[in-house]
């Protein structure tokens, strides 16, 4: 494995899986351009699939029934032979190797969670979780301790002595995940792992998988037919149709730049609020006032932008607060030159990684377009309410929000106040000179 390959946990190149007569001849015909449905006596389940799975990512393979996704995942751990192409795990091939070596690869590098749990009904929950360790020859005391630790990790503390039949479907799937984690492999394959669960339990399991992934940093290949699930879980997504991978990309790539009409139709009904983030839709912050600027500068900045308030930032672009045009006028009338005494706290700022679903309440409560900050607290963008709504579906692309706090003070009033302040300052200077 070369130095450039160290970030890749699993690689597939030119994969074909053909069932039926003369599969290798069928592969050659497919390569020559023969349509899938014209292969007499043969069925092509996977056609020329190539992809890489990076270490620590959740790579989702998504497609409708019959698209080839379940066949593909079974090829990744040797449950299905490869008709053509190569698969490497940590740089080592898994096709065409002796059965003993393939079993060792499964024990050490690749474990799997099945749709219908595949638990051993006569063994307790703890014994099911410990089973991979038993296959590795780990002693009983160590197996039991590890099983107890992992059951607590997946929220099943105290259930180790129960039989699988005594658990709900969601709890049984937690046992399946715990068993895969107990194997302590580099790669976790999950074939429609949550599709048999009720919607609420399914979402709970998705949340827990993400939480576990953040803690353990496993490499996960997740199969699903549910686009919302794919968008929620996947760091990257491979979309399959009729045995072929038609697009690979991030959830945002799939949603905003579908590769063809098939993918575009697929994503029409996706819950965008759970996929797009603040960083995807934010705009350049405007207006913004420097913390060291005076009230005159602040007032003119707001006037030029037709806004009645503005965010104030320090030299490092960190949010210092917000100021309104009326407060700036008060400072001018009092002859003050600093903003600090009258700054208002920012009601709420959001992270650029927050999904749109979590932004509605803060957006309604914020008198200014919602402030978006990075990990260091620097202001990197704003989201007007109209932009937030437009991002959720087709509609006007307006990108500005004018109504903030109160209507902006008319320019004529601002000019009059500035003129009065200038006159007062000049009078004060003349008086000082006379003295």
What characteristics describe this protein?
16 helices; alpha/beta; single chain; four-stranded antiparallel sheet; 435 residues; six-stranded mixed sheet; Rossmann fold; 2 domains; CBS-domain
CATH architecture of the largest domain: 3-Layer(aba) Sandwich
> Tell me, what is the CATH class of the largest domain?
Alpha Beta
Structural class: alpha/beta
Query: If you average the pLDDT, what whole number results?
Result: 84
Low-confidence stretches: 394-405
Major sheet, described briefly? 6 strands, mixed
Beta-strand fraction estimate: 15-25%
End-to-end separation: 86 Å
Bulk shape: elongated
Helix content: 25-40%
Q: CATH topology of the largest domain, anyone?
A: Rossmann fold
Biggest sheet, spatial arrangement of strands: 6-7-8-3-9-10
How many beta-strand segments?
A: 16
Number of domains: 2
Give the helix tally.
16
Query: Looking at this structure, what is the CATH superfamily of the largest domain?
Result: P-loop containing nucleotide triphosphate hydrolases
Rg, nearest Å: 30 Å
Pfam family, one: ABC_tran
GO cellular component, one term: membrane
InterPro entries: AAA+_ATPase, ABC_osmolyte_uptake_ATP-bind, ABC_transporter-like_ATP-bd, ABC_transporter-like_CS, CBS_dom, CBS_dom_sf, Gly-betaine_transp_ATP-bd, P-loop_NTPase
Protein name: Glycine/betaine ABC transporter ATP-binding protein
């Amino acid at each position: 494995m070369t130095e450039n390959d160290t970030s890749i946990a699993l690689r597939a190149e030119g994969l074909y899986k053909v069932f039926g007569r003369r599969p290798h001849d069928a592969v050659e015909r497919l390569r020559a351009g023969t349509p899938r449905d014209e292969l007499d006596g043969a069925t092509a389940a996977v056609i020329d699939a190539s992809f890489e799975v990076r270490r620590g990512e959740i790579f989702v393979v998504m497609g409708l029934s019959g698209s080839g996704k379940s066949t593909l995942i079974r090829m990744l751990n040797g449950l299905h032979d490869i008709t053509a192409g190569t698969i490497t795990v940590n740089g080592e091939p898994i096709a065409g190797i002796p059965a003993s070596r393939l079993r060792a690869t499964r024990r050490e590098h690749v474990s799997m969670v099945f749709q219908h749990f595949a638990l051993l009904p006569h063994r307790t929950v703890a014994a099911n979780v410990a089973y991979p360790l038993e296959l590795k020859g780990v002693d009983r005391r160590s197996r039991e301790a590890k099983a107890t630790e992992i059951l607590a990790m997946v929220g099943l503390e105290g259930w180790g002595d129960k039989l699988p039949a005594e658990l709900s479907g969601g709890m049984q799937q937690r046992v399946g995940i715990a068993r895969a984690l107990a194997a302590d492999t580099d790669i976790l394959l999950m074939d429609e792992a949550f599709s048999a669960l009720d919607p609420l339990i399914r979402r709970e399991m998705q949340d827990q998988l993400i939480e576990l992934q953040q803690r353990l940093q496993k490499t996960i290949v997740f199969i699903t037919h549910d686009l919302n699930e794919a968008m929620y879980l996947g760091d990257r997504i491979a979309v399959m149709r009729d045995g072929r991978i038609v697009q690979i990309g991030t959830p945002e790539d799939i949603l905003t730049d579908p590769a063809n009409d098939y993918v575009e139709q697929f994503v029409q009904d996706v819950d965008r609020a759970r996929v797009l983030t603040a960083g995807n839709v934010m705009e350049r912050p405007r207006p913004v006032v420097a913390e060291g600027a005076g009230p005159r500068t602040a007032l003119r900045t707001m006037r030029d932008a037709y806004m009645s308030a503005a965010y104030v930032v320090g030299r490092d672009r960190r949010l210092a607060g917000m100021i309104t045009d009326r407060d700036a006028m008060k400072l001018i009338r009092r002859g003050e030159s600093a903003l600090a005494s009258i700054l208002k706290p920012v009601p709420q700022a959001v992270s650029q990684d927050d999904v749109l679903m979590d932004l509605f309440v803060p957006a309604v409560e914020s008198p200014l377009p919602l402030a978006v900050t990075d990990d260091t607290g620097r202001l990197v963008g704003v989201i007007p309410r109209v932009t937030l709504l437009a991002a959720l579906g087709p509609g006007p692309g307006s990108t500005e929000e004018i109504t903030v706090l109160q209507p902006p003070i008319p320019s004529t009033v601002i000019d009059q106040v500035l003129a009065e302040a200038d006159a007062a300052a000049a009078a004060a200077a003349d008086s000082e000179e006379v003295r």
